[in-house]
Amino acid sequence: MARRSLRIRQRADALGDLSLQGAKISAHVGFNDTRNSDERTEEEKERPLKRTKKNFQHSVESSAKAKGVPKQFRRIRGKFGLLERLTKDVPLEIVLEIFCYLNPHELLRLAQTVKFIRSILMCKSSASIWRIARGNVGDLPPLPEDLSEPQYAHLLYEPFCQICNRECDNVLWMFRMRCCESCAESTFPLYDKKFLARQPPEFRKHRILPRQSVRLNGWPISIGNDEIAARFKAEFQHLQTPEEQNTWIASKKHELQVKEEHAHLCTLWQTARLDKREKEQENLLERRKDAILIRLAEIGWREEAEISSYVFSDYGLVRQPQELTDSGWNRIKDKLVKRLSDHKARRLVEEQRQAINLRRSLLEKEYNEIYSASDHREPFPSLGDILSDEPFETLISDSPLDENMNGQFFREKLLEYLPSFIEKWKPVKMQELVEIMRKSIPEVTLSDLPLATSIFRCAECPSNIKMHYPQMFYHRCCFRDRSRPWSSHPIVFDESGSQAVRTILQACALNPSTTTIQKLHSVDPLIECTTCHLSSASHYGGRLFMRWPHALVHSSDHNFSVNSFGELTEKIFACEPPIGYGNRICCVHCHEELPHRAPDLRAHLLEHSEIDVKKIKGTKLEEIQEHWYWDPRCALRFLRQSFRCREALI
């Protein structure tokens, strides 16, 4: 049975007037309020209270509706209104003593819970409680003269925009309101010339209208307040004499100065408060993260969470500013483990892919060095051929991720593996070329490939590039930048090119059945296209001469003359340009790509101690051919240039 002491009854009578005053103040600050439960009419007091029917069929929801419980609490089991009964039963001086240990934010929340507490806090006689509560907050600016204690607390702590009711931390201190950036942009005008032009001249002269600095889209601007401006204008127009107007303007200027100083203090306090709150939330997030890591360690998932820190730390169930409880852990445990498990599977796949790419790049680097030092007059497998072979495919794809594979490791493997691989690979690919030739010449054999008459072309190149053995093993259409296995699919036998070379060989008294490409390079016959002859009247006039590689790619229906120039031969040779820088030659001794001038070649040969450079007497590349060869990687059309000779005109 509840206590009913004389002191409690006297306090209840004394609070009658207090509740009326609190209701008036609450209406002033904008809080919703209803009648106090003690203010029942005489008719309500005389009406007998109905006993609640104890019927099992009545649900919790229907009984809650009968008691007027808010909708969001209707499914909650238990008793309501305990806080109100507690404050009514506890002596008032104890309640007021408790209030003195709170801050304005907590008092504001209490005033929104129970009507009885609200009636106490919202009356003017409770101003001392709010004043003490403000003193409990360090560095809080003093109460401004134009706000009451509850209004000031509402401005300081209520985290909602007063226009759209969304959460925001932006306070317009000069206007005494909270407002988000979007509402500030759409509600308030810019404090500019247009705004001031609408005000009386005295306002513009003395600057008495408050303005607020805000940031919109990252840019600082100043906004005004039409409502305050209209109120000031109405007050100013009611003044009768110039003395009254001057006094009013002076007071407004003083008020504006005081308000600006107070707004500056509030801005500093708000910034410090938000920074402190942010640090508290970060500390709380860190404690929650550490607590979850401890739980994950117990089930064996902490290591994955630390490896995938961004996946773990940024997860919504982890990044919550609240302490971790046992029930909270049980709610997020399965989802968190599933997230980490899925990410681990993706991470391992990605790590495997990155490891394979790294190994491929190391292998490719070592392969390119070995390939550059190889004899290019012989076929050499592409990187794709090596990677598609079982030993290296297994080595790169199936080796453990933690196995150390550096460049030296791959170089040793390649030097060990390549000789045997080339020994198996080369005959197979050469036989493919023989089969291509047999479609046109059935009786050819493997020994016919190096012959000068074995001319092929690429069916995929728009210009049908002509080539001889072993140029097709370096042609890009056959392996796509050496990243794929070499294929003879684009290669076809060129009958017209073969016949053109046969004609050149016969003109040079060489046997087409035995003359090789190297022999033809050594002979290097001089050829004239008689079809392209131009008279000396032309700017480009003269007879057109070329070497055999250019003749091979020249128009096949033209007429040629080979090594039949008699006494004019010396004049023609004098008109021929030297081997240009666009040509590519390789050293016979080290197979390195060389400069295209004899002096540069002599300088390179000095690096080879086994060669006596003093015995090399030639000053032209043609005179020291035993030390270099044409690079098969270079297309035929780039080996030599055609030229015209006016001096040879008859």
UniProtKB/TrEMBL annotation:
PROSITE patterns cross-referenced by the UniProt entry: FBOX
| Composition skew (Basic and acidic residues), residue ranges | 35-49
Q: Which residues cross the membrane?
A: none
Residue span of region Disordered: 30-61
Instruction: Give all residue intervals belonging to the F-box domain.
Output: 84-133
Instruction: Identify the InterPro entries for this entry.
Output: F-box-like_dom_sf, F-box_dom
**Protein name from the UniProt record:** F-box domain-containing protein
Please report the organism this UniProt entry assigns to the protein.
Answer: Lentinula edodes
